[in-house]
Specification:
This protein has helices at residues 2-33, 40-57, 67-94, 99-126, 130-157, 165-183, 228-249, 252-262, 264-269, 274-299, 308-325, 330-350, 356-370, and strands spanning 204-208, 211-212, 219-221, 224-227. By secondary structure, it is mostly helical. It has one domain (2-201, 223-370). Helix 1 (2-33) packs antiparallel against helix 12 (330-350) and helix 4 (99-126) runs antiparallel to helix 5 (130-157).
Length: 384
């Protein structure tokens, strides 16, 4: 029983750290703009799918790029060249860096960086450095989703900055449905589930506890297995969360983010570039969601990645984690993610996987009844 308890605890922390990464995107956007970005779960799905696509470009699983991967590389080169040419022409005509030219240069730069990262991952894979190649694919996926997050904020949410909250909520739901259905088109990712290539090694580092049997490899009581993939996933998630915590609470940019969260108007009067801070928040949240998508697809490579309902449900659980911890509170999102991950693994281990969602959403209801602001959230008083 002790071995099972420890194993479940370790699995819960590994999964919970991934939920926490996704929850951070929800809570950062809510903390600054006071609305829920329901398209965030689809960015999480996109992170896994981009990892899959870049892995194909890099030669997984059979060492040769597929037809789709070749088209992806050509598309990236086309974006890089076209973006640079159009941006240069815009600058030449106006003799200044217009906002449109600036955006196009950013997109062009992303295209070139993505191409270089894909080629680097392929070179590393061919020479047997698969772990490093997996890290390069992770970075490429994060950059891609960061660009998507930037585009969503600029095109869908910025025009509604001063609109009623209901309009923004409906727009967020519409963007979510748009991304879900766009990804299922045949020329995108398609409707057939795909097995994620194993980019990171999944082997047992060591066993402890347990009762060995008479023959080698047999166990009377199953030991606690520490897997390398779980260590990588949990370690990467914790490193990203610690880095975010340091950024928000111990940097000039973090102070600007907290100032905008307190009052956009006052922050603007103090000279803080509110639009840039908001865009950076979306980019950062999207990159964290992409990292979670990559790591989750490595932990569960057999999961059908076109099963939109399954992946969106995972994003919804991360939203539950953000609310449980205290929506708008970064450390609360981390705590909520770990709690939801632990609850999910303990229910799977000691009851049945079929009732996991009942317990997860039951925790949400219970916490909201006792502490409507979440575990680490603060009650707000509004003067009427």
């Amino acid at each position: 029983m002790t071995e099972k308890l420890i194993q479940t605890l370790m699995d819960g922390l590994a999964v919970g750290s991934l939920y926490a990464l996704i929850a951070l995107g929800y809570t950062m956007v809510y903390g600054i703009l006071k609305f829920i970005n329901f398209a965030h779960s689809d960015v999480f799905v996109l992170g896994a799918w981009m990892s899959y696509t870049v892995a194909l470009c890099a030669g997984w699983p059979d060492g040769q790029p597929t037809h789709m991967a070749t088209w992806v590389l050509l598309l990236l080169v086309g974006i890089a060249v076209a973006g640079g040419l159009v941006a240069g022409f815009t600058y030449w005509r106006r003799k200044r860096i217009a906002p449109a030219a600036y955006t196009l240069w950013l997109v062009s730069g992303w295209g070139w960086v993505a191409v270089l990262l894909v080629l680097l991952a392929r070179l590393l894979h061919q020479n047997g450095f698969d772990i490093i190649a997996g890290g390069v694919i992770l970075v490429c996926s994060m950059l891609t989703c960061g660009v998507v997050g930037f585009a969503l904020e600029r095109l869908a949410y910025k025009p509604l900055r001063n609109a009623p909250r209901l309009n923004v909520l409906i727009t967020a739901i519409g963007v979510s449905l748009f991304l879900q259905n766009l990804g299922q088109l045949d020329w995108m990712f398609g409707t057939r589930p795909q097995g994620m290539p194993q980019l990171l090694p999944d082997k047992v580092l060591f066993n402890f506890a347990g009762t060995p049997g008479a023959n080698p490899g047999e166990w009377l009581v199953q030991p606690v297995r520490v897997r390398l993939l779980d260590v990588i996933a949990a370690g990467t998630s914790i490193a990203l969360m610690v880095g975010l915590d340091r950024l928000v609470f111990h940097s000039k940019l973090g102070r600007a983010m907290r100032a905008v969260s307190f009052s956009e108007r006052n922050a603007a009067l103090m000279g803080i570039p509110v639009d840039k801070v908001v865009s950076f928040t979306f980019v950062l949240g999207a990159m964290l969601a992409a990292a979670a998508g990559f790591l989750y697809s490595q932990k569960y490579p057999g999961l059908g990645q076109t099963a939109a309902a399954v992946w969106v449900l995972l994003g919804l659980k991360a939203f539950v984690a953000a609310v449980v911890g205290g929506i708008g509170n970064i450390r609360g999102a981390m705590l909520g993610g770990l709690l939801i991950g632990l609850a999910e693994m303990f229910v799977k281990a000691y009851q049945s996987p079929s009732v996991v969602d009942i317990y997860v959403f039951g925790i949400l209801i219970a916490v909201l009844l006792v502490r409507p602001g979440g575990l680490l959230g603060k009650a707000t008083v509004e003067k009427v």
